[in-house]
Write a structure and sequence with these properties.
This protein has 569 residues and is mainly beta. It has 5 domains: 90 residues, Immunoglobulin-like (Sandwich), CATH 2.60.40.10; 96 residues, Immunoglobulin-like; 143 residues, no CATH class; 92 residues, Immunoglobulin-like, CATH 2.60.40; 92 residues, Immunoglobulin-like (Sandwich). Strands 1, 2, 6, 12, 13, 14, 16, 17 and 18 form a 9-stranded mixed β-sheet that branches. Strands 3, 4, 5, 7, 8 and 9 form a 6-stranded antiparallel β-sheet that branches. Strands 19, 20, 22, 24, 27 and 29 form a 6-stranded mixed β-sheet that branches. Strand 16 and strand 17 form a beta hairpin. The longest helix is centred in the N-terminal third of the chain and has 13 residues.
Length: 569
């Protein structure tokens, strides 16, 4: 018996392939290098940058540099196994007005990779971002001061809506090779009205094009647009499992052909690998990986616009439901196109069901938009956390330049019947998001909720949202205080051993719970006494009674209620 483990070991050594020969464990490849640049070059220092593709293998990287291609000096070595590792480091105590060579080096267990030779000079152009001027509703003149330091220099501007995020790069301006400081001005348009922007001036030496010098950021605000107008239509796609994606589309006088963050347009990240979430988005050549809002620039009431929607097919199955806001009087015509010929009219309709399992994209085409100037837009609701008695809501609105009040309507039907207090959101032309919690809802109940926006030009409504509050847990049921006297149906019913009767008291009261037969005779006094407000429970055991119908009655002050129950032996 002792020989078997030995034989097994021998066989394992002979026939077991090397670990790295299994799929997914191939020998590591050499690392690769890309995006090699010099940044923040001064007269005595520089910062080098490169992207190292490691293949997930522990890799070391550094930079070699010197006054010729023999280099002679190197930066400190760094190590990482990140797939696309960005390495940033650089030397100090460089010689002024000197041409330097540098290259990136990466090394793993398979060997070493050298990047191409790059050059920079320690007399870089200087650049200073100046405050923009000549602001309009949709544009401004960007300004910078730049000294080329005797080298031909390109200068351009980066623009963003956040201090760490840029989404627009302007064209370049070429400066001659002299040593005089020059003022550069560049007009820009297609910005959003009444919006704050960040701008950075960037200079690049033409000869040493891998060197970038960036000035500090300046901020500016575009002007308020007194003629702002727009149409924003909410669109919801729901799959067979009840999962929904909320989108919106339309036209606006502040929109551009690019993403407009101030109108709520943002590039969406790709869905996580292996995610079973249902997702949909607008796609287009200028929309990056796609977005959940797409607004076209409004020019005239004869224009036509196209919106492309793509989504993941098969996640939850068909039928799919497409629902949208009211479009009557806002467009002359609006259609959904599936494939090459199949079309659906959106005017006069608000939803459609799709049963084609291969359906994974569609196109919306609108004709003849008629935006109402200053009419506010209620873009839609996004229900958040739902409990047994409350729901958290977030909704987006665009006041369109007129003082606007917003609120929610809600109820157990599309007649709603209840509303929150109006809240003023100002007169911006940008999107404003409001957060609200609705309390006092009934557990296990279906509610209809919509957002409302109103100003002096009119009123607009968001899409009807349907949600269901959660059922009470046993602990919640015990602790919840009813808003009125209530006698609940017993459970189970019919019953043959015992049953439970529950009732609710909004305040302390003297109660009597009595059981009767069909002739009105008292069978049992189930409970009697002074009880606190809340939900109460009585367990009834009547195994000695005859099969039949019985009644139980609750009296609490002036309140009286009676229900029937069926006992079966």
């Amino acid at each position: 018996m002792r020989r078997y483990p030995f034989v097994f070991f021998v066989l394992l050594v002979i026939f077991h392939p090397p670990i790295n020969s299994f799929p997914g464990n191939d020998h590591a490849a050499l690392p690769s290098l890309s995006d090699i640049h010099a940044y923040h070059v001064t007269f005595t220092s520089a910062e080098f940058g490169a992207t190292v593709s490691t293949g997930g293998v522990l890799t070391s990287a550094w930079f070699e540099f010197g006054i010729d291609t023999a280099y002679g000096r190197s930066t400190q070595t760094q190590s990482s196994s990140d797939l696309n590792w960005i390495v940033r480091t650089g030397p100090k105590e460089l010689l002024e007005s000197t041409i330097y060579h540098f290259r990136a080096v990466a090394e793993n267990e398979e060997g070493r990779t050298y990047g191409p030779d790059r050059e920079f000079i320690t007399s870089p152009p200087s650049v200073k971002t100046l405050p923009p001027d000549t602001m309009t509703e949709h544009g401004a003149t960007l300004r910078a001061e730049c000294n080329p330091q005797g080298q031909k220099t390109e200068i351009y501007f980066l623009i963003g809506v956040e201090s760490t995020y840029t989404y627009l790069s302007t064209e370049s301006v070429l400066l001659p090779a002299d040593t005089n400081a020059r003022l550069v001005s560049l007009p820009i348009d297609q910005l959003t009205a009444d919006s704050k922007y960040y701008v950075w001036a960037v200079a690049r030496n033409v000869l040493y094009s891998d060197v970038f010098i960036q000035g500090a950021a300046q901020t500016f605000q575009t002007l308020y647009d007194s003629e702002a107008a727009g149409i924003i239509i909410p669109l919801t796609i729901t799959n067979a499992q009840g999962k929904s994606c909320r989108l919106s589309f339309g036209v606006h006088t502040s929109a551009s052909s690019r993403l407009d963050p101030s109108l709520g347009e943002h590039e969406l990240p790709p869905p996580p690998p292996g995610s079973d979430a249902f997702w949909a988005k607008f796609s287009g050549p200028l929309l990056g990986q796609g977005c959940d809002r797409d607004y076209k620039l409004y020019n005239s009431d004869t224009q036509s616009d196209r919106f492309e929607v793509v989504f993941e097919p098969g996640t939850g199955g068909v039928p799919l439901e497409l629902a949208w806001g009211v479009m009557d009087s806002l467009f002359d015509q609006a259609i959904i196109i599936r494939g090459s010929e199949d079309t659906l009219n959106m005017i006069g309709e608000e939803k459609v069901q799709i049963s084609d399992s291969s359906f994974d994209h569609f196109r919306i085409i609108t004709y003849g938009p008629h935006p109402i100037r200053h009419l506010p837009n209620a873009v839609g609701n996004s229900p958040g956390k739902i409990t047994s008695t409350s729901v958290e809501l977030s909704s987006s609105f665009i006041p369109n330049g007129e003082g606007t009040f917003v609120w929610y309507q809600w109820g157990t039907s599309r007649e709603y019947g209840k509303s929150t207090l109006p809240e003023c959101i100002g007169d911006s032309v940008k999107m404003v998001t409001i957060y609200k919690t609705l309390d006092g809802l009934i557990p296990g109940t279906v509610y209809h909720i919509r957002s409302v926006a109103e100003n002096s030009t009119g009123i607009s409504f968001g899409m009807d949202d349907i949600l269901r509050t959660a059922d009470l847990t046993e602990v919640e049921r015990d602790n919840a205080r009813p808003v009125e006297f209530t006698l609940y149906q017993n459970y189970p019913n019919p019953f043959n051993l015992g049953t439970t009767i529950e009732y609710g008291l909004p305040a302390m009261a003297h109660t009597t719970l009595t059981m009767y037969d069909v002739l009105g005779r008292i069978v049992l006094l189930l409970s009697e006494g002074l009880e606190s407000g809340g939900r109460h429970r009585v367990v009834v055991n009547i195994g000695t009674l005859s099969t039949g119908v019985y009644y139980y009655e609750l009296r609490a002050g002036k309140f009286k209620a009676r229900r029937s129950m069926v006992f079966v032996k």
